[in-house]
Amino acid sequence: MLYLTADKFPVFVPFGVIGFYRYLWFLIRVAASVAYRPVPLPINPTYIAAEDVTIIVPTIDAGEEFKQAARSWLVGKPKEIIIITEEKMKGPLQELAEAVDPSRIRVLTVPFANKRLQMVHGIRNTTTDIICFADDDAIWPPKMLPYLLAPFEDQKVGGVGTSQRVQPVGDTMTVWEVLAAFRLTIRNIEISASTHIDGGVPCLSGRTAAYRTIILKDPEFIHGFTNDLWLNKYHLNSGDDKFLTRWMVSHGWSTYIQCCYDSELLSTMKPNWRFLLQVLRWTRNTWRSDLRSLFMERHVWTSHPYCAYTMVDKLFNPLTLLLGPVLVTILCVKAAKGDYHLPVWKIILSYMAWLTLTRTLKLVPHLWKRPQDIIHVPAFIAFGYYFAIMKMYALFTLHEVGWGTRAGIGDATQALNALNAQNAAPQAGEKPYDPEAANYASQQRR
């Protein structure tokens, strides 16, 4: 960050060309977010949850929190919930399903734990028009499903996402959970702004997102989704939501984010230092996906130019963020040598005051609801610089494709072969998905 300071100005103001650009960019996002409106619920909906929605939940270690999440999904009356897990976990998950609603929850298994293959197995066993993927701890508000379905009234829309906020694991939020909540507040502003400006979004978060089944049933999609390689060498398992979002863009489908109270899900985050491992995994996925979108696939430039610009901005964000303390350090060295008119303590104090003010302003939407979290603003500032360094580290370690916080992930190739064999013949009671019949049924309900 450059700075503007007159020779005899008694206070250091760490603001200049780069600073002006960063805060102007932020104000544009805020203005667009304020102007954004979610798609309202239709009077005569084409899609009805009880007939047209299957919720797919890939998991390997769902616990008691699953019961609360599942009951929140069932409020919307989906036709079915399909849980896909590895074979050794079927018993415990079957017990959880039976404790909630055995008539509408089915438990299926794959030979090995692999999220993308679990998702594909769920897709192959779906017979409804709309598939909704959900994390096993995602808690929905009562009107979530109607709001997820509303944008699908536009037949060009292929995928719909939501806004999010943090559900604490314990009675109170840890500092790690507050940091996650701060990040989600900023993300909600970004995705609503991007949706309002050009309809694009970098990612339909996998915590909860809905898609047209006809897109996901396409053999081309299934092959690409389960054979996603980085540098034609490293088999990707995480980053499934990034892949799905890019597929929508590259195949001409629109996306939409329903960002409002009635479609804002609650989700738990790691309440300890393992949150940093989550962030590292997400950061690597973002690097891989954004680089592909911008420089390999390139569809986003013409379909969603504003979204493309936000991706470019994020590429350089770590450098601009770290430039501030570098220039302040240089100035402090000059001041220590007597080559600058302000003492070192004034420079540092002014810089810290500026950081606190500007970072707090960015968090006003969160602090309005939880003013007690203002004590964690210094931690958020420190985390910002840590994240900038982590982001540079992630860039040089994109070949590391492990989950990081999830044990027991099986070999992708081995799991794919076993799953293909398992799906070679229809399972007992399985009905093939007929897109023409499904489309006719939905049209009849118009």
TrEMBL record:
Annotated region (Disordered), positions in chain: 424-446
Major localization listed first in the record, in broad terms: membrane
Pfam families: Glyco_tranf_2_3
Gene Ontology molecular function: any one: glycosyltransferase activity
Keywords: Glycoprotein, Glycosyltransferase, Membrane, Transferase, Transmembrane, Transmembrane helix
Stored Gene3D superfamilies: Spore Coat Polysaccharide Biosynthesis Protein SpsA, Chain A
Transmembrane regions: 315-336, 374-396
Record CDD domains: GT2_HAS (cd06434)
Listed GO CC annotations: membrane
Subcellular location as annotated: Membrane
Highest taxon above the source species: Eukaryota
Name of this chain's protein: Glycosyltransferase family 2 protein
Organism for this UniProt entry: Tulasnella calospora MUT 4182
